[in-house]
Amino acid sequence: xxxxxxxxxxxxxxxxxxxxxxxxxxxxxxxxxxxxxxxxxxxxxxxxxxxxxxxxxxxxxxxxxxxxxxxxxxxxxxxxxxxxxxxxxxxxxxxxxxxxxxxxxxxxxxxxxxxxxxxxxxxxxxxxxxxxxxxxxxxxxxxxxxxxxxxxxxxxxxxxxxxxxxxxxxxxxxxxxxxxxxxxxxxxxxxxxxxxxxxxxxxxxxxxxxxxxxxxxxxxxxxxxxxxxxxxxxxxxxxxxxxxxxxxxxxxxxxxxxxxxxxxxxxxxxxxxxxxxxxxxxxxxxxxxxxxxxxxxxxxxxxxxxxxxxxxxxxxxxxxxxxxxxxxxxxxxxxxxxxxxxxxxxxxxxxxxxxxxxxxxxxxxxxxxxxxxxxxxxxxxxxxx
Length: 385
Ligand SMILES: Cc1cc2nc3c(=O)[nH]c(=O)nc-3n(C[C@H](O)[C@H](O)[C@H](O)COP(=O)(O)OP(=O)(O)OC[C@H]3O[C@@H](n4cnc5c(N)ncnc54)[C@H](O)[C@@H]3O)c2cc1C
Known about the structure:
- By secondary structure, this protein is an alpha+beta fold.
- The protein contains seven helices and 19 strands.
- It has helices spanning 17-28, 66-83, 102-114, 123-129, 152-165, 291-304, 354-367, and strands at residues 6-13, 33-36, 53-55, 89-90, 93-98, 119-121, 139-144, 148-150, 169-171, 176-182, 185-190, 193-202, 220-230, 245-251, 254-258, 269-273, 311-322, 329-332, 340-344.
- Strands 1, 2, 9, 10, 11, 12, 18 and 19 form an eight-stranded mixed β-sheet that branches. It has an eight-stranded mixed β-sheet with strand order 6-7-5-14-15-16-13-17, sandwiched between helices.
- Helix 1 crosses helix 7.
- The longest helix is centred in the N-terminal third of the chain and has 18 residues, at 66-83.
- The site of flavin-adenine dinucleotide (FAD) has 37 residues, from helix 1, strand 3, strand 13 and strand 17.
């Protein structure tokens, strides 16, 4: 069957974190879905790879995300049940920093706004409970028990598998080159064919800009390194039972985040810088990690998590798509007559939301509106008077 003249309810452009979830939710609702992805399923060239993503709810970035996370949590558990393997593994999460740091004050603001369960740990309690971390005077931590991590490749595969099970037509190795409004629908052109649909979902991650000319938000693509280290202190200290996921604000505008040892100890313990990294082009980004970059991480770890400052077993590049305020854009694309639902600019913290974003994109693509509170993520929020 040729893709020529094929007609669908919705075409989803990009089958990474967000697009795979959108395809799954659209197919579940009975829509005729075509998903088009330029690379392979769960590939390592975008933003949704590297074995682990933090999932947490006491959200330092903004309290308005909490209602979306309250929906994401049961959707993660449901996805795990449907696919027959748990996806969201709870380890608890530590948000660490100076008392007046953005990570600590922001976490406590979300906790206060939504009455979320948490514990505040001073440096004495931290030394006792989590001696792996080395805090400076005046630094504290907020512990949230109902938090943990998901495996992003596994989650993308789960969404794709369920979408396909519900009849979605998924094409890989097919880059979308153009789309345009056409009559009362949308026409999409991609390598190997074209298709018509009532509406379009744009979930193209770092490649969004050329596909969203109507969007008046500049998005930078940031190169970020995921470091995998062999702990000289031995693996036991980093067991998930003793070492939760964390974000550690090590200074103003600087933070590391990381995970316990998951899976094979030979794969190392993962840690990364949240802010440090160059702006790049997703098609020409250097995917090699230099010795200097490895050393930079070991130097910070030597002070902050000394038991982890060992040899690298691996280092991989991943891409952030950053908006000016580092909040997402989830909206109907301006100038698209309400026919294009856009999810982009996840600014390095979107993965935990993928199932609820899939649900929202299905709402927007099928109904032109959603009941989820996404006003703060509107596409026109930077528009001047
Ligand atoms: C190092 C790192 C650590 C992170 N840690 C966390 C974390 O702990 N917790 C958390 O919640 N989030 C985290 N994130 C952020 C999160 O992973 C991203 O926000 C999320 O993966 C973004 O998903 P996406 O669907 O927008 O992008 P992607 O998953 O990259 O998907 C976009 C897809 O669109 C495809 N595409 C683009 N253009 C076209 C085209 N023209 N035709 C066809 N296909 C196209 C791409 O190939 C890609 O597959 C992290 C990200 C990185 C890089």
